[in-house]
Amino acid sequence: MSSGTAGCKRVHSIEVEQPLEAERVQHGLLLVKGRLQPKCSTARQLKATLDLPENPPREQLTQLSATGEFKLLFDLEQPETGPEPKPECGDSDESVCLLELRSCTAARLIRFKYKPRQSSYRVQPLYLLCQDEEKPVEQQRQVQSLIDLNLRLVQSIYAHKLQAAGFANRTFTLNGECCSFRSQLTREQALAKSEDELWQHFAGEIIACPQWGHQILLKFVAFVACTHYDGDGVAASGDSSYASIRRHLKGHAALGGGGLALFGSAHFYAWPRTFSEIGDCVRSTERVDIARLPDESNYRRTYGGVYASTLGAVCHELGHCFDLGHTTEGVMGQGFDYLNRVLTVDQPTEHLPQRIVTAAGAARRTAAAASAGPSEGSAAQRPRFTKLKLQSSSQLLDNYHNQRRHDSFYFGRNCAVILANHRWLNLELEETAASFEPADIQLNWATKEIVSSRPIRLVELRCNQNSLVAHYEEFEARGGEEAPVHRFQLPASLWHLLAEQRTHYVFVLTTSGDTKRLSCDL
User: How many CB atoms lie within 10 A of CB 145?
Assistant: First the structure.
């Protein structure tokens, strides 16, 4: 099929939602979203040609949605025809790339630069093996490769969503390839532990590990190898609810905070193992046989739904490691189930059961505080999502309109501000962090103020029980017109929640990337 339409007399143009011209792309998986304007009644496809240095041009033919939208995903590091990635660019190396887009009568040539991101603040992937767990080296490598690929996609999605929120193209740096980590737990001990207990134990082991424990500029995304699902038990119970599936899933976690985001590995059956499989995995409608495999798709019961929800959960829990609280919508709220919509067009609007936040146990308190480094020390009490009943008809209508306006997978304004000013994502803050002492941030009880030695960028009031953001204030000097803010007086209603009812705490972010939790707990 041709990307053009013979005989079309209209003059079309191709708009790219996040213009790439003059951009310096720092992540290896390039996600491009755009639209053919005006909508063409006969054009069905768009042809994209990517020209990378020292590689033959590669082409991609993608479908246009009913409204003319398209999405493209390219791997800037791995040639499509070869198994070996290109050597990583050095500090001074930068690739100039050309992307040509054609559809109907429209053509557009985009020039951008690619340089793999380098930062002292990094995220290290780990594959957690029990002491008595024997897995062939080749099998370990296959799983590690799967983890690496999907974390690169998470890296790209973070950059894409921050740019969509109006910030520079920023994301986190991966420390390198996924490594196996041998735990002192036996498989039997690991399967007997709760999510919180697993988080606490593995966080403690990583902190005590000579290889990783003293690297305070590392955060970790870890996957438990021994996760076990008792499908026979689910089938015998006759209960196919999420709660039943979860009760029969052992050695599993989906928790993040401080320096560790921890997950199980039972849902890898739905994850792509190669770049070419990503699209098929996202769109897969294959039904999940819950007598054999655990379903974590928010009741979609499809492989594609499992992939969207579980990789979305990785984005969500990693957000907690970057000091994000909960929101009512978006990645840090109800929206992480909709990761599929980031990568697809013309997906049907999905009416999924809402999730609510419940406070996680205190089991992570010690380990999270120790592993948090310069991040928020309250990550130990990070809550998690559980299921709630189906939405009302009015909520379904709101959900429908929201999905039409966005892809339902986005960072709220306050979350985007934190990420854009976080040391793990903002390269410009590295020199500041090395040159200055940490900011002194305190509550002044006499004046009911937050006082900081560095300018304040954001203040949030979060609920103690579930870290849900109840209110936030953003501070930004624009063009030198506004003086930096070092003191902020909380309104009386917020001070009441913080100091009198003590149901909430304050999260503070400075312009230098310092974060602090302030509470009035005795």
Answer: 14
Tokens of 128: 């957690």
Give the integer Cα–Cα distance in Å for 160 and 170.
Answer: 8
**C-alpha dist (Å) from residue 226 to 229, 250, 348:** 10, 8, 35
The DSSP string of 333-349 is TGGGGGTHHHH-SSPPP
Buried b (16+ CB within 10 A) or exposed e, 380-411: bbbbbbebeeebeeeeeeebeebbeebbbbbb
Span of 47-51, 179-183, 405-409, 512-516 with lowest mean pLDDT: 405-409
H or E element in which residue 301 lies: none
User: What are residue 321's phi and psi, to 5 degrees?
Assistant: -65, -25
pTM tops 0.85, yes or no: yes
Contact predicate 467/383, CB 8 Å: yes
As a whole number of angstroms, the distance between CA 122 and CA 318 comes to 12
Task: Please state the domain extents for the chain.
Answer: 13-78+94-114, 122-342, 436-518
| Chain segment 419-446, per-residue pLDDT in tens | 999 999 998 888 666 667 889 999 998 8
CATH code at 13-78+94-114:
2.60.40.1930
Handedness of CA 372, 376, 379, 383 (dihedral sign): negative
Q: Do domains 13-78+94-114 and 436-518 have the same CATH topology?
A: yes
Q: Residue 451: CB partners within 8 Å, gap ≥ 6?
A: 441, 442, 443, 444, 486, 487
pLDDT tens across 108-158, in order? 999 988 988 889 999 999 999 999 999 999 999 999 999 999 999 999 999
- DSSP label of 299: S
- Residue located via tokens 């798709």: 297
Task: Give dist(CA 177, CA 124) in Å, integer.
Answer: 8
CA 419, 425, 428: angle at the middle one, nearest 5?
110
| Closest C-alpha to 414, from 185, 186, 167, 181 | 167
Task: Return the H-helix or E-strand segment holding 126.
Answer: strand 122-129
User: Taking the mean position of all CA atoms in its chain, how far away is CA 464?
Assistant: 23
Helix-helix angle 303-321:137-164, to 10 degrees: 70
436-518 topology per CATH:
Immunoglobulin-like (2.60.40)
Dihedral of CA atoms 522, 322, 340, 127 in degrees, nearest 10, equals -100
Residues with Cβ < 8 Å from 368, sequence gap 6 or more? Answer: 199, 203, 257, 258, 259, 260, 377, 379, 380, 382
User: CB of 414 within 8 A of CB of 508?
Assistant: no
Distant-in-sequence contacts of 118-122, Cβ < 8 A, 24+ apart:
118/91, 118/173, 119/172, 119/173, 119/424, 119/427, 119/430, 120/217, 120/430, 121/172, 121/173, 121/217, 121/423, 121/424, 121/430, 122/172, 122/173, 122/174, 122/175, 122/217, 122/218, 122/219, 122/424
